[in-house]
Amino acid sequence: MLLTMDINENNEPRRTLFGAIRRRWWIWLLACSLVIIGGYAHLTRGEDKATPQAKKESPASPKPVPVMVVAAKQGDIKIYLTGLGSVTPLNTVTVKSRVDGQLMKVLFREGQTVNKGYLLAQIDPRPFEAQLIQAQGQMARDRALLENAQVDVRRYQELIAQDSIAKQQLDTQKALVRQYEGTVKIDQGQIENVKLQLIYCRITAPISGRIGLRLVDEGNIVHANDPNGLAVITQLQPITVIFSIPEDSLPSVLEKLKAGVRLPVEALNREQSKILAAGYLLTTDNQIDSTTGTVRLKAEFPNKNNELFPNQFVNARLLLDAKSGTTVIPSAALQRNPQGPFVYIVKADQTVEVRPVTVGPGERDDISIDKGLSPGELVVLEGAERLRAGSKVEVKVKGAKTPDKVK
Asked: Has this prediction a pTM greater than 0.70?
C-alpha cells in the first residue's frame, strides 16, 4: 500500500505515507548537522580563549642554572709582601792594570768563573826588573857611604877624648851619618816600589766570580789610568735582590727584624709561575722614596746553581707571617658589587643565597674569609654570572665526574 501512488482530480500525484517519512528524515539530518557544527565552533572558541589565560595563570618553571661549586675549607694562609725587584751582585770589579806596559798574556776565558787570586794577565816585567837592579845598586853605594861615615864618627869620638879635634867636627860627621841613613831608607823604598810594580805585572782576580768579555787583546800597551780596564768580574755567589714594598708595610717588617726573625724571600719569574731561588731578607733601606711611597729591601740568595743573573728582573715575595685555622676558598669564587665582596652559597633546596663576607689575606689562587662563611659550605666557583638570589641551580662539584646533589 505504501508503494502505491494515486492521481488526484488535477491529475497530480498524491503524496503517500512513504514520501512524508522520507522528507522528514532529511530535515532531521540537516538539523542535527547544524547543531553539531555549532557546538564544535563554540567549544573551539572556548578553548582558544582559555588557553592564553591558562598559560598565564600557570607559567612553566625555569630551568636550573648549571654551576660548579667547591666546599670552603679550613686551612693556613701565608701572608706575603710582593714587589718587583732587580738582581744585584754583592761585588762587581773592573779589572785594570796598575802599571804601564805591554800586555803579554791573557790567561782567562770569557765567561769563566774564577777564584780570588787567579792569574788573569801578564804585563811585560823587564823594564821593572831593570829598575830594580838600578835601585839595588844605588842602595849598595849609599850603604857603603853610611858605613864609612859611621867609622869616621867613632874615630872623631876617640880624638875628642884626647882633645885633638874640635867638637864641631864631630857634630858635622854625626849629621852626615844621619843624612846617609836617610838616603839608604829612600833607596830601600825605591826597591820596594819596584818590587811592587813587578807584582802588579801579574794581574790577578781581586774577587771570586764570573768574568765577562775581554776588553783588551794581547800585545796592546795598557796604562793604569785606562777607563775600561781588561775585563769585569761579577760575584754571583751569594747574590742579592733589591725590591720595593709599600711604605705602609714597613713597620711590620721592621718589627720582625728587630725581634731577630729571619724572613724568607722567594724570587719568582715575571709570570710568578715559577720559583727561581729562595733566600732571606738582609736589610732595609734607610729612607722612603717619597715619589712612589715605597721603601727598598735587600734580600740575599745563595745562588749555588746560578739561578739568578745580575740585572735580571724578578718578582720578590717576602713571607711576613702565617694565618692558621682560617676559612679558605678559591679567589675565583669571590664576587664583588657596590656593597662589597660576597659569595653565592648553595643551600639544601638547590637554590643560591647571596652572602656578604669579610676578606682576609690571600695566597696564590686562594683567599681567606674572616667573616661570613664557615668551612664546609658550598660556594659557586663557575657560572655565577647568570645567578641571582634564589636562583635554582644544577650543582656540579669541582673534581667530580657526575653532578652531585647538595644534601
From this structure: no
